[in-house]
Amino acid sequence: MPVLTFSKVLELAKQKRIAPVYIFIGEPQLCKEKAKEIYNILQDKGSTIEVYNLNDKEDKKTFSKIKGYQEGLFGLRKVYLILGGENIELSKEEEIIKSLEKETSVFTWFIIAEKFEENRPLYQFALQKGAIVFFNFKKEEDFLETELILKLKETGKTMDRKTTELFLSLVGKDYHHFLNELDKLLLYTEERAVITEEDVWSVTIPLEEEVLFMVEESLFQSGPEKAYRIVAQLLDHKEEPHRILSYLYKSFKIFQILAEFLEKHPELKKEERFSQFSKKWEEIKTDPIVEIPKVLTERHPYRIFNLKKHLEKIKNLPQVFEELYKADLSLKRDFKNPYQVFKELFINLWQKTLQP
After folding, report:
1. Final residue before a domain boundary, out of 105, 135, 165
2. Domains in the chain: how many in total?
3. CA distance 48 to 79
4. At what angle do helices 161-171 and 208-222 cross, to 10 degrees?
5. Each residue of 202-216: b (16+ CB within 10 Å) or e?
6. Are 167 and 50 part of one and the same domain?
7. pTM for the whole thing?
8. Which end of the chain is least crowded, N or C, by CB within 10 Å?
């Protein structure tokens, strides 16, 4: 098997067509999760597994000392899962290939690597007798959307574009969280073929940072009513009002930090085109003299660019924190209804700090 798509590799594995070596190239965590889907099939058939992380010095040392590869008990298949596969030494690759050429039916190797050169012996062996799978999506969101489409197809379900975007925006980029929430959603809609936005809101637990982003974006792009509807949904799902308010405070605190930084760098502040903004941002980041707050460096340049555009709409940033403080008092001191508190908060933010 040459370079294949993962869906094809999985289909062949389910048909008991198992390769002696699989090389998964790309983001390590994603590769590991996809490899797991195949070696779980093998373990169901009684195979045993050994795991070595070659990014770990002790594991790498132990792995280098292995001489010969023992088959599993009673002649069952033995699975080797190698993390940090780019660190396999050339002599070890040749040793692995030699063992596979003697007997390919009792061993299967899973090599997980961020990169793996084509001229390496294991790559060439896998190209002829194994399988190579690339997970080289330009964006993590592309990968998750592809995974979602495949899962929906497997279960005979559909969701429209708007529902798809809502689900992906809620679960964020964490692959484990994505899988957990998707499993819940599929189980919840087990007897129905069409998944709706209401289904997504009913069972999906969003990542905190994604909720913060959604509320913030909704407020700036769609106004107070849309932002309030998202928060109301969170309250319906028993999210603590104080935590939601904390999200909002952190969000506007980033705006404050960015505003102070842009005052020191007017060349960034005045830039309206992302291509030029990104270029200048990278120049500043690589300047050893310039100190950039960590909360900014952790974000993608396009995210910073969007924050800058939103910041331009805020006419009174100190007033924002005043309104957040009032909302906090309403919850803690006056014990007001959280729904009413947030509705008033968004209206006040819109009228007093955001409206032109």
Report:
1. 135
2. 3
3. 6
4. 130
5. eebebbeebbbbbbb
6. no
7. 0.49
8. C
Residues 112 and 240 in one domain: no
Rounded CA separation 26/258 (Å): 33
The H-or-E segment that residue 203 falls in is: helix 197-203
| Residue 95 confidence class, pLDDT cut points 50, 70, 90 | confident
Rounded to whole angstroms, how far apart are CA atoms 64 and 51?
Answer: 13
Flag whether 1 is in a domain: no
Going by the DSSP 8-state scheme, the letter that residue 351 receives in this structure is I
Angle at 104 between CA 101 and CA 109, to 5 degrees: 100
What is the band of 74 on the pLDDT scale with cuts at 50, 70, 90? very low
Residues 6+ positions from 256 with CB-CB distance below 8 Å: 317
Domain of 161, in residue numbers: 140-203
Cα pseudo-dihedral 43, 48, 52, 53, rounded to 10: 20
Same domain, residue pair 245 and 335? yes
Domain termination residue (choose one: 203, 221, 238): 203
Are 303 and 320 contained in the same domain? Answer: yes
Q: Is the pLDDT of residue 208 over 70?
A: no
Query: Which amino acid makes up residue 2?
Result: P
Are 214 and 335 part of one and the same domain? yes
Residues 127 and 31 in one domain: yes
Residue 47 neighbours by CB under 8 Å, 6+ apart: 39, 72, 76, 77, 78, 79, 108
What Å distances lie between residue 104 and 19, 37, 68, CA to CA? Answer: 8, 21, 14
